[in-house]
Amino acid sequence: MTLSLALTAAALLAAEPTNLPAGHPPLGSEAKPSAAAPSGSQGGMPEGHPPMGQGTFEGHPPMTGRAPPTAEELLQQLDGMQGLREREKTFEIASSLGKLYYTNGRPSDAIAYFLQAEGKAKATRELFLAQRKKLGKGAVPSAAEAKCGFGAETPLESMTATAAERAKKGDTAGAAACARAALEPVLEVEAMRANALLLSGSPGDALFVYERVLEVAPSHADALFGRSALLYETRGDDMKSLKAAQEGFEAFLTAHPDSPRTPLARKLGRMAHEALKAGGMKKWVASRAEDRRIRASKLDLSPQQPMVAQGPMAGGPAAGPRAGGGDNTAAPHVSQETMDAMKNVERTPELEAQLTKTVEQGEELLAKGRYDEALAAYRQVMPLRPDARVQAGLAWTLVGLGKPTADRVWGVAVGGNPAAVDQLGETLKAKGDVKGAKALWTKLAASAPDYAAKAALQAKLSQ
User: Fold this and answer.
1) 0.85 surpassed by pTM
2) In this structure, which topology does domain 356-462 adopt according to CATH?
């Protein structure tokens, strides 16, 4: 199999049928002369086209009647071509072969072809860097602004020649613009080679190549993210590298806010910042491990061991005959160390989502009248999120259970945020507990008449 045939077959794999010229027979089918065509005609083929099935013009793949090879078959054929890697190639051919191997899960094999392609662009790169240096602080115009005249199929060699001609004439800005445009496909190849090196177990070489890309294009998405991630992962105890990683993630977020990798870049940037504050990755990891150890030893969010500091709502011991006795809503004293540990719990998105889920479960249990189970749910959340929504739910739970501490907790909830208590009524109603909602609104109206008038609670009660 010849090199030209292999590359043509690769192109056919991605070609759309509509790309064929008008009158061209469908590839992979046996073309027969039209019955209406005169004897000796080409069946509608343009003049000079060889008869179908009787040979081909130079460079055209044989019309064998078979479908084009799959990518796997093509790679097998390329593997069998002796001397293919060493053979001289244009940038376009070398980069196409590299991409073919890379996109089919063979990054190590792709590297040699990517290197050949980059070698063809050495002069282009040097020309661009020299012209950009001459520009100084001046911005490099776009290819359109410089009227380079390049199309999607313009070869690298032609684009480089155009840029060199501009430079020879003293058109520094135009030369820089045309050379930069010529380097666009080269940067893609370099970024893919860096990825291939990383996948092949050479992170140090990958980092070097990412930095080559950024030398030409400081905001290149793949190179900017890849370099920052590698610095973070492999040089986390070098403060200069860690700082560069954080700044790189920030630059990525600024330049590519809509990228699919934006959430990960934001998270890694935040972690790099924390590691910097801790004095390096090892120290940060150690501190996180210690934090987890403290939380595990001091915090137990299970229903059996609630932690509400010194009584409900941190309002002190509950009043009444059962205070300190059978009413388990008044928890034992919690040490200051434990309270500090609760305050310092890392507020991860996962933790916040779990707390919200537990609050929603508590509201669901309230709507079903399962007050004991609802109380257990609110006890889990209260130490970490004592907000108005949780206070309202806990207060109504204690009212439902008839606990001696209910009036105190209810007063704190209503006095702090009556709207949150009102909203709990809406939640109960939405979950089917209309009777419970009206009972809550009735008690709220009696406890906070000013709010009741403003919020038109009577209208809700009359519905």
Assistant:
1) no
2) 1.25.40
